[in-house]
Amino acid sequence: MTDKALSHITILDFSHLLQGPFATQLLADMGANVIKIERPGKGDLFRSLTFRDTWLGGESPNFLAWNRNKRSLALNLKSPEARAAIMKLAETADVVVQNFRPGVMARLGYGYEDFRAVNPRIVYCSGSGYGEDGPYENRPGQDMLVQGLTGIMAATGQADHPPTPVGAGFSDQVGAMNMVYGILSALLWRERSGKGQEVKVNLLAGMLAHQNQEMVMAMNTGADFERPNSGIGHPGMDAPFGTYPTTDSWVTIAMSPYATLVGVLGNDDLLRFDDPETLFDQRDAVWRAVAAETGKWSTDALIEALLAADIWCGEVKSHLGAAADPQVAHLGLVTSYEHPRAGTVKVIGPAVGMSATPPAISRPAPLVGEHTREILASAGYTESEIDDLLAEGAAGVPG
């Protein structure tokens, strides 16, 4: 077995839902020993939430998506005996990750200072919605709410429709990437300094940072973007940049010479719009005129013709369509793991390739407390002591 890049790193993962669990899954894919600390019996909140009330063998697909390659340790955080066990694990751990509301972990005795007292080298990463304090300190930090606050929702969709959220947990996923970025930076600095530190990530800052080109434009010109009233793909772009109908689906057309596109479509009357100012000021009219022509083509025929003319284009695919895409198959992005209850779970594999230490999926998402005995035993607890913790309700195993 090829060694993994982070196989020497142990993470105590208190996070739930998407932001924190995605971050720790990314690190687990690289070999980190992630110990997911969950509530006995109930576990991560995502175990009880799912899309369309659809379950896989009684398990939430949402949970299965973000928790592979981890072990589950079920402990009652309010129990003194559980706290003692966690601090014993913290003595040799490298990272703590949590995304509870600000102050919750500290009130329970699991704040940064609590962990630093037993391990000065610990890297403690907190994820929040809006930071640790300020006027939004007590607001719920949920993905769609943050999309609304940071401009991306107001810039997405058509002008005569409501502001449109991205069709995935985009704020949470940006937050997860920032968690990984911060954790790895802190671990690298620890190699030089020997010291741990606290890393703080919030969804508000992350979403603004990932829209920096839009923010720079708006803040330095004093003008907000105005959404188009058609399939133009960005509120700051001119035509033909956007999404266009075909006889059987939709295609995307990005930055491409307008005259070249007109040549492919075969209607020279469209050249009346071929002026940079017109292509922006009348972009909705341009879109409608171009869409009338693309709507005469099948998707396959139009894509073939556009690519032959070196026009940037692509098909619009559903999630299932994307899973069946030939390039996705070529890259081997769809893989699976075997779960004791859900059976074979199809997933998207790691997105990063590494020549010497490639990431891999070695464990399915765990059952609540599946590894409680194993983890506590590795920390030095005897079978009798573990039995006592279970009897007292300080720890839990699968029901």
From TrEMBL:
Protein name: CoA transferase
Domain of life from the UniProt record: Bacteria
Keyword Signal: no
Organism: Histidinibacterium lentulum
Gene Ontology molecular function, alphabetical: CoA-transferase activity
SUPFAM superfamilies linked to this entry: CoA-transferase family III (CaiB/BaiF)
InterPro entries: CoA-transferase_III_domain, CoA-Trfase_fam_III, CoA-Trfase_III_dom3_sf, CoA-Trfase_III_dom_1_sf
This protein's UniProt keywords: Transferase
